[in-house]
């Protein structure tokens, strides 16, 4: 691929249009080297890798906005071409197109000056939204249920009290022209504030390469309306949609969930029941049961056991108050920043990330059965001791016995929020329960422009659920409930009540998580398979998988240890005394640290400092 992150990537709007076209055409990789078989010895055999990416299917995109001759419009504000940094901090090949330029560069510039708004957004749009992740950035005791959340005394505005304003008319041409302001994720996830990924970002110091914004509200869809869910103590007591009796009921149940293991007599009779059945026995009103099941625990009504529901509720509550008033964080510039952050730290210490570099096959020794090398698209043989292969690279012959699940995805660009309040800069998560029994709930994440994922006066909406049919068949009914699509069937009143969709894309993505390694046929013992994204809201599956593979290869090593302090290994010419400048500025006479002294990355750390 010519972009970072595989199916975890983020794109500008034009970059996503190119990705859509590429996946609708599904062209094979052309061979540049025909005589590669001469690289294979007599005692070796090959395992061919797939030439097609079959992880994306049923891609359909639609434009509902005013299409005023946008064919010849180009993205405005094109940035200069930036280099890709590879091993030892050396500059790699400059990227070939504007949409390939990773947004990490601008994220780094912003992170060096905390609190300074990005040039691409007005200061008012992003002021106070960034969150710096540190191990000391703790809020109140989780047992306080987010008691330290900001603006505790400020009651939320009821939607009916907000004076309606005439929304600005956004055209498709404007979306194309402002395409660089979009960072559209292929996979939609949030980070639990006490999840495995946050802990790893802090421990490995990768968090310094990114900034985050709090998810500001949890929403619910009930009786055809979108409502805000009170989840912290402050939210509960400031809520106008709950009676005083309901507030006491809710607080009593949430307090129980925090230490439910200390009170087994409360739930042990319902261990074989569903969580929904257990909630119905707890003297909770129907609205409270709905909030807890779909917006706090976020579990299935039919498939989730009582213990699983209690665990999910406790996880939600324990994450409250660490970085804000909800349990979730979202990385500025999109989820696709996270893979780039890890790649950047890898490059600092000598790792190389090769774009536009297809791999043809694995080379296996017949006697030992171990993989010795790979042969790439250009006829080059590269040897190694260990090989980690993403599932999509494996050919059909290797995956004969593998049964894959699918994820249904939709991405919308809309003109208004699903729930208007006095603040336009909201990051919201909404769970829409299924209409028919047995169907999955749909997770909706709505992002505002201060997340640096969309242009001003628009919202980026991600919809995700496990697939039962094509993505459009699974998700379009939910889209029609929440938004209007400028179709003739919709009445004028519906159009005024609902936010409008300017553009939409639907696609199915393969979910290869949870597959046992023995399901793959004929893989050598030193070849490890990692999956693509899963359908869960968090990132725990990917972190656990990475650590498992690492420990199998290096059982005595620490997984993602804290990197050395750059100040201890950087030779900064500016700090050298003036009388020594003539000598120190000479590349030939400047002493270089040994590999042991530099921990394998002295030059690369210099490059990182320059960035």
Automatic annotation (TrEMBL):
Subcellular location: Cytoplasm, Cytosol
Gene3D superfamilies xref list: FAD/NAD(P)-binding domain (3.50.50.60), Guanine Nucleotide Dissociation Inhibitor, domain 1 (1.10.405.10), Guanine Nucleotide Dissociation Inhibitor, domain 2 (3.30.519.10)
UniProt-listed Pfam families: RAE1_2_domI_C (PF22603)
Keyword flag Lipoprotein: no
The keyword Transferase is annotated on this UniProt entry: yes
Signal peptide from the UniProt entry: none
Bias (Polar residues): 131-140
InterPro entries (alphabetical): FAD/NAD-bd_sf, GDP_dissociation_inhibitor, Rab_escort, RAE1_2_domI_C
Domain RAE1/2: 407-535
Keywords, ordered alphabetically: Cytoplasm, GTPase activation, Transferase
Coiled coil regions, renumbered to chain: none
GO cellular component: cytosol; nucleus; Rab-protein geranylgeranyltransferase complex
Region ranges (Disordered): 90-169, 556-611
UniProt GO MF annotations: GDP-dissociation inhibitor activity; GTPase activator activity; transferase activity
Broad class of where this protein is predominantly found: cytoplasm
Entry superkingdom: Eukaryota
GO biological process, one term: small GTPase-mediated signal transduction
Acidic residues: bias regions: 569-582
Family: Belongs to the Rab GDI family.
Protein name in the entry: RAE2 geranylgeranyltransferase
Lineage of the species this protein comes from: Eukaryota, Metazoa, Chordata, Craniata, Vertebrata
Gene encoding the protein: Chml
């Amino acid at each position: 691929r010519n972009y970072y992150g595989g199916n975890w990537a983020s794109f500008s709007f034009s970059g996503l249009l190119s990705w859509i076209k590429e996946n609708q055409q599904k062209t094979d990789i052309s061979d540049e080297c025909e005589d590669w078989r001469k690289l294979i010895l007599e005692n070796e055999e090959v395992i061919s890798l797939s030439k097609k990416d079959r992880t994306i299917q049923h891609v359909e995109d639609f434009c509902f906005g005013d299409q005023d001759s946008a064919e010849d419009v180009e993205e405005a504000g094109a940035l200069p071409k930036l280099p890709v940094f590879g091993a030892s901090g050396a500059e790699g090949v400059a990227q070939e197109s504007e949409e390939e330029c990773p947004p990490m560069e601008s994220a780094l510039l912003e992170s060096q000056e905390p609190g300074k708004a990005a040039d691409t957004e007005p200061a008012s749009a992003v002021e106070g939204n960034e969150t710096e992740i540190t191990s000391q950035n703790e809020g109140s005791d989780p047992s306080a249920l987010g008691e330290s959340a900001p603006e505790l005394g400020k009651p939320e505005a009821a939607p009916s009290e907000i004076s309606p304003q005439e929304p600005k008319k956004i055209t498709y041409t404007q979306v194309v022209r402002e395409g660089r302001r979009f960072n559209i994720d292929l996979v939609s996830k949030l980070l639990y504030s006490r999840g495995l990924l946050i802990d790893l970002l802090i421990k490995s110091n990768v968090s310094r390469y990114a900034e985050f914004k709090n998810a500001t509200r949890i929403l619910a869809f009930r009786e055809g309306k979108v409502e805000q869910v009170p989840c912290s103590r402050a939210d509960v007591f400031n809520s106008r949609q709950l009676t005083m009796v309901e507030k006491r009921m809710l607080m009593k149940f949430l307090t129980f969930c925090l230490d439910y293991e200390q009170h087994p007599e409360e739930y042990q009779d319902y261990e074989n029941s569903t969580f929904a059945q257990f909630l119905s026995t707890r003297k909770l009103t129907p609205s409270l049961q709905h909030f807890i099941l779909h917006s706090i625990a976020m579990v299935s009504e039919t498939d989730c056991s009582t213990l699983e529901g209690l665990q999910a509720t406790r996880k939600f509550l324990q994450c409250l108050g660490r970085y804000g008033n909800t349990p979730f964080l979202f990385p500025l510039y999109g989820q696709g920043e996270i893979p780039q952050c890890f790649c950047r730290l890898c490059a600092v210490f000598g790792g190389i990330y090769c774009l536009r570099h297809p791999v043809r096959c694995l080379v296996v020794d017949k006697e030992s059965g171990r993989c010795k090398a790979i042969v790439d698209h250009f006829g080059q043989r590269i040897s190694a001791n260990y090989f980690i292969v993403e599932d999509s690279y494996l050919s059909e012959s290797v995956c004969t016995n593998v049964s894959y699940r699918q994820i249904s995805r939709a991405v919308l660009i809309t003109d208004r929020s699903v729930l208007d309040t006095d603040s336009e800069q909201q990051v919201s998560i909404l769970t829409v329960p299924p209409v028919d029994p047995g169907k999955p709930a749909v997770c909706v994440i709505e992002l505002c422009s201060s997340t640096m994922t969309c242009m001003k006066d628009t919202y980026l909406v991600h919809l995700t659920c496990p697939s039962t049919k094509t993505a459009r068949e699974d998700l379009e009914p939910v889209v029609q409930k929440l938004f209007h699509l400028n179709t003739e069937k919709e009445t004028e009143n519906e159009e005024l009540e609902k936010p409008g969709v300017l553009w939409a894309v639907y696609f199915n993505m393969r979910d290869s998580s949870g597959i046992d390694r023995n399901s793959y046929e004929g893989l050598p013992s030193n070849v490890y398979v990692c999956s693509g994204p899963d359908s869960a809201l968090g990132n725990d599956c990917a972190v656990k998988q990475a650590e498992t593979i690492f420990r199998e290869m290096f059982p005595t090593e620490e997984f993602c240890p804290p990197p050395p302090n750059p100040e201890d290994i950087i030779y900064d010419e500016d700090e050298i005394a003036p009388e020594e400048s003539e000598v120190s500025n000479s590349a030939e006479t400047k002493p270089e640290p040994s590999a042991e002294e530099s921990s394998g990355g002295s030059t690369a750390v210099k490059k990182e400092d320059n960035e």
